[in-house]
Amino acid sequence: MYDISMTFSRNVDSFPAMSDPNQVITVSALNQAVGRLLERSFPLTWIAGEISNFTRASSGHWYFTLKDDGAQVRAVMFRGRSQFAGFTPREGDKVEVRALVTLYGPRGDYQINVEAIRRAGVGQLFEAFMRLKERLTAAGWFDEDRKRPIPMFARTIGIVTSPQAAALRDVLTALRRRAPHVNIVLYPTLVQGQGAAERIAEQINTASRRAECDVLIVCRGGGSIEDLWSFNEEAVAWAIVNCSMPVISGVGHETDFTIADFAADLRAATPTAAAELAATPRGDWLASLRADATDLRRAMRRTVNDASQTLDNISRRLLSPSAQIRQQRLKLLALSTAMMHANRAPLNQSRHALDKLSGRLAARRPDLRAARSELGALQHRSAVCIAVQLRQKRESLNAMAAQLEMLNPQRTLERGYAIVTSREGAILRSPAQLKPRDSVTIRLAEGSAQVEVAGVQAALD
């Protein structure tokens, strides 16, 4: 609560001091001093009340009385401030004003100078609007990369609004004027009041589910923030974001902004502007088609002329088949003659070179008859020497085989001798290598036997 008494006591010292108690001041000076005192004592303050005696002067200034159940105060809002108010107050409207307390000197009336005005409760609504906007922005619902382009050739346009709304008439009028060929589908809904947000979201979802339109317009006329509040609900924003087709929002006037405007793929300043953005004028399309047709005819004419000129150039170079055959025959005859001369010259050169080489070979060929006679004699002598050496080698081999047979161990065994080996296979030559009860192997001429040593007797000297 603002403490008036404390503020007044702090600022009373600033009241113009009079050196003489009998000094007389004018009423104007008194009012000016009181006005300055009030302005310094009370900062800009939000004041709630009801509009009464509202008057709009030809200068653009607003004059009215702000009252409640127990009191009233005169108020003025100058033209420089009132033009940004966004609405014109009416008798009985509940409002909140941001004002400076002052004194109107000529009449000595205490009054407030209004700097800003809003409908009562708008502050809370605006705060709720900003909180929701910040939350949905952080969630990415308003990202530009999520938004889709509006199709250039819209054949069917859907409209979500009230059938009784003036905005619908504005949209239909604009579409009939600009694009009478476009089909229009109306999704009727409430746009204001209790349950309007749910109905708007439901109709947007219906349009998305049916997918019978190329673009969807969500619109209504202007109004206060309370009137437009249905378009500030999260359910409507969610339906717009998840719509299967691009959405144009045309809610309110140019200065009105709603959550639906930020969620839509494109925001229009008014419903009429939304219709203009949704459909390109038919005249523009026809003019574009006429220009395209002119360009196409010009391009086709140029292509035909170029082809005709090319055909003339080719026809001048074209010969009859018989003339072409004669030319090809002459060319073939010339080629065959050239090939014959080209083949004959190397052949003659090769023959001449072969004759020269043959003569040189005949001159240098040796006499082979004497060499053949000498080779025969050498062959005979070589055969005789080989036969003599072979007979000598065979006789030497037989002598060595006889000696080898005499030294064969088997022959020694056949004469009654034996070979004694240990269990490990070592040949035993001395009784010292034996012990009683050792097992030894005795190899005989016709086999072997395993025996056990009963006793060992050393050799006698």
Q: Overview of this structure, please?
A:
The protein has 461 residues and is an alpha/beta fold. Among the domains are: 4-120, Nucleic acid-binding proteins (OB fold (Dihydrolipoamide Acetyltransferase, E2P), Beta Barrel); 125-284, Rossmann fold; 412-452, no CATH class. It has 13 helices and 13 strands. The chain has helices at 4-11, 27-41, 79-82, 122-138, 166-178, 196-210, 234-241, 259-263, 271-278, 282-317, 321-364, 368-406, 409-414; strands at 45-56, 62-67, 72-77, 94-104, 109-119, 156-161, 183-188, 215-220, 247-251, 266-267, 419-421, 439-444, 447-452. The strands form 3 sheets. The protein has a 5-stranded mixed barrel with strand order 1-2-3-5-4. The chain has a 5-stranded parallel beta sheet with strand order 7-6-8-9-10. It has a 3-stranded antiparallel beta sheet with strand order 11-12-13, with no helix packed on it. Helix 1 crosses helix 2 (27-41). It is elongated.
Write the layout of secondary structure elements.
Blueprint: H1 4-11, H2 27-41, E1 45-56, E2 62-67, E3 72-77, H3 79-82, E4 94-104, E5 109-119, H4 122-138, E6 156-161, H5 166-178, E7 183-188, H6 196-210, E8 215-220, H7 234-241, E9 247-251, H8 259-263, E10 266-267, H9 271-278, H10 282-317, H11 321-364, H12 368-406, H13 409-414, E11 419-421, E12 439-444, E13 447-452
Parallel strand pairs: 3-5, 6-7, 6-8, 8-9, 9-10
Antiparallel strand pairs: 1-2, 1-4, 2-3, 4-5, 11-12, 12-13
